Amino acid sequence: MILAERSTDEGLLVAVCDDDVLGETFEDGAVSLTVTEEFYGGEEVDEQAVIESLARASVANIVGREAVELAIREGFVDEANVLDVDSTRHAQFLRM
């Protein structure tokens, strides 16, 4: 998976995606999701690094079947709140 972290005034912003979705665009009806290098580009990491980053995140954007399934399994997002867009999955969370 590819992980990017950014410090913001609101806290840590985490973007994580599967390796194979970076640079791709997914469309489903009116929904279009482009996984840009600019936002999602970062370093390739293992599951443990993603879990640790999501645990610290104030806001997270997660794209790809593997990344979203990890976030569900680890309790960061509820499957009922996951979007299926074309052949991939997308989830977000915000800690308040």
Domain module tally: 1
Major sheet: order of its strands? 5-1-2-6-8-7
Q: In percent, how helical is the residue content?
A: 10-25%
Say which CATH homologous superfamily is assigned.
uncharacterized conserved protein from methanopyrus kandleri domain like
In the CATH scheme, what's the topology name?
Answer: uncharacterized conserved protein from methanopyrus kandleri fold like
Cα end-to-end separation: 26 Å
Q: Quote the average pLDDT.
A: 97
Shape: globular
Tell me the number of strands: 8
Strand fraction? 35-45%
Structural class: alpha+beta
| CATH secondary-structure class | Alpha Beta
Using only CA atoms, what is the Rg? 12 Å
The low-pLDDT segments are none
Largest sheet: 6 strands, mixed
CATH architecture: 2-Layer Sandwich
Reading the helices and strands in chain order gives EEEEHEHEHEE
Put simply, the count of helices is 3
Topology:
Elements (H helix, E strand, L loop, with lengths): L1 E7 L2 E7 L7 E4 L2 E4 L2 H4 L2 E2 L2 H10 L2 E5 L1 H9 L9 E3 L2 E7 L2
Parallel strand pairs: 2-6
Antiparallel strand pairs: 1-2, 1-5, 3-4, 6-8, 7-8
